[in-house]
Amino acid sequence: MRRGFLQSRDGLYSPYPTRNKKPDRDDRRLFSDSNAPPPTHAPPYTVKELRDWGKKNVRLSDDPVMSAKVNLCELGLNQRLVFRNIKVGAVEVSTLLDCAVLNMLPTRFSPPPTPLENAIEFRQTPNKGIGAFATQDIRGGVLLHVEIPATVMQNTMILDFGMTRAEVYRELLRRVPEKTLHALLLLKNSQPPEMYELEEGILRSNTLGIRMPAPSVPAPVAMGHNALFLEASRFNHSCSPNVVHRFDPQSFTLTVHAIRPIARGEEIVHSYIDLTSTVTRDARRALLPVRASDERRQRIRDTKREVVVAPLEAWYRGNGRGDLQKVIAFHLAAVEDMRIEGLYHHPYILHISMLALCFAASEDIRGFRSWMGKARDVALSSLASDAALDMLKYIVYPETFPSWGLARKMRNRPWAV
Ligand SMILES: C[S@@+](CC[C@H](N)C(=O)[O-])C[C@H]1O[C@@H](n2cnc3c(N)ncnc32)[C@H](O)[C@@H]1O
After folding, report:
1. H or E element in which residue 174 lies
2. Where is this region: Disordered (predicted)?
């Protein structure tokens, strides 16, 4: 006889062994261990076997390499998914999570951080549907959006517990509070209606991958999670994003930080893929003119400190006889590469410091203030507050900057030709 959800051989079975969390009365459990056909032989499975089995039972990544790594015995067959509404402050979040994951969530969520007030607005874009836009100039590093998800679900599930995938999605959304649900159903559905029902279409088009605490499994992708948001799901994608999002399980909120200064009116765009790990051509093929992008990235990768400082050093060694405009053009081109690719790591600050130096040397107040301002934004976002204070002093009193007027001074040296 098949055992019920809450019964084990020795009596009551609790899916919450480590804490005394009792399941809510309206929890619905999708335990797959009691009725899933066990694989006939031990893993590793061949890709084909996995695919065939997966077509019927599992929603795995379509990537065969990823799928091949999944050990279904450890993962899928022990899966204990529970529909459960979690209260985060006054907000109710509809979730479909594994019991083990539920156990790892804090019993009390910490208060979320406070974002910059009224930093973004949503409006129609010419070609991407609705998008988010900055309503004011935003400094790099600023927290501009905080949001509790409407739903969270594990993104791999075994579907042999008597519900179809469409029914699982429908159930997840049915559990969302009514007012939120109305708004969720207005989100963009980019999926072909003949393939997916509305709920699945909405979830597939709008969920963001988030990191939740999860037990270690052979293929972490199988313990990945997706979340649907009323607002953050309206952010459009760019491979050169100006914000990054991160999910904090302690407060159960998504936080969105600017990764560079954003001008008022600029669209807020994030990357649907993790650009730091997914820099392969394939991952970006559909999204960017790949060759130009590859070349830009190669140039950025090749940039060593010596390369960045070389043109200005050469100008200095040549007693200022070379063309400072060429040095400026070199740095502007590099900064433009980094802007397009959204890669603002180490050489970026070096380039903008060089630009500030060049403009100081040629006594160009506007250029100097603009680039010193950018350097200050970076210093502030990396909490280098002492450096930022000095920079502010130079922005206000440019002539106190050490290399101010260097070009003129070099020209006026008695040995200058
Ligand atoms: C998560 S939604 C983003 C919000 C959406 N624009 C809306 O109107 O609600 C994802 C959908 O937005 C559109 N989208 C997002 N980024 C895009 C981009 N860079 N270019 C074109 N369309 C984009 C696609 O239709 C995609 O399926």
Report:
1. helix 165-174
2. 1-46
Which ligand 1 atom is nearest residue 188's CA? Answer: 9
Q: What's the whole-number mean pLDDT along residues 8-14?
A: 29
Ligand 1, atom 4: nearest CA belongs to which residue?
A: 234
| Ligand 1 mean position, distance from CA 328 (Å) | 37
Nearest Cα residue to atom 23 of ligand 1:
128
CATH of the domain spanning 15-270, picked from 2.170.270.10, 2.40.50.140, 3.40.50.1100, 2.60.120.260: 2.170.270.10
208-210 β-sheet, strand order = 28-31, 80-88, 91-98, 151-154, 225-228, 208-210
Output the furthest CA–CA distance in the chain (Å, rounded): 102
Looking from the CA of residue 187, the nearest atom of ligand 1 is 9
pLDDT in tens, 316-335: 888 777 788 889 988 988 88
Please choose from 202, 236, 270 the residue to mutate so as to test ligand 1's pocket, defined by most ligand atoms within 8 A of CB: 236
Distance CA(364)–CA(368), nearest Å, equals 6
Q: What is the pLDDT of residues 80-133, one digit of tens each?
A: 778 889 999 999 999 998 877 888 899 899 999 999 999 999 999 998 899 999
High-pLDDT (> 90) share of the chain, %: 31
Which residues, including other chains, have CB under 8 Å from residue 413's CB and lie 6 or more apart? 319
* Cα–Cα distance, 402 to 340 (Å, whole number): 32
Residues near ligand 1 with C-beta < 6 Å?
128-131, 187-188, 190, 205-206, 233-234, 236-238
Amino acid letter for position 266: E
**Contact yes or no for 84/97 (Cβ under 8 A):** yes
pTM, full prediction: 0.58
Report pLDDT for 27: 65
Which pLDDT value is given to residue 206? 92
| Ligand 1 midpoint to CA 384 (Å) | 36
The residues, ordered by sequence, that sit 6+ positions from 30 with a Cβ below 8 Å of its Cβ are 79, 80, 81, 82, 83, 96, 157, 161, 163, 168
Rounded to the nearest angstrom, the distance between the alpha carbon of 131 and the centre of ligand 1 is: 8
Supply the residue whose CA is at minimum distance from atom 19 of ligand 1. Answer: 237
Distance 128 CA to ligand 1 centre (A): 5
ipTM for the whole complex: 0.99
Residue 365 confidence (pLDDT) above 50 = yes
Domain borders along the chain are 15-270, 303-411
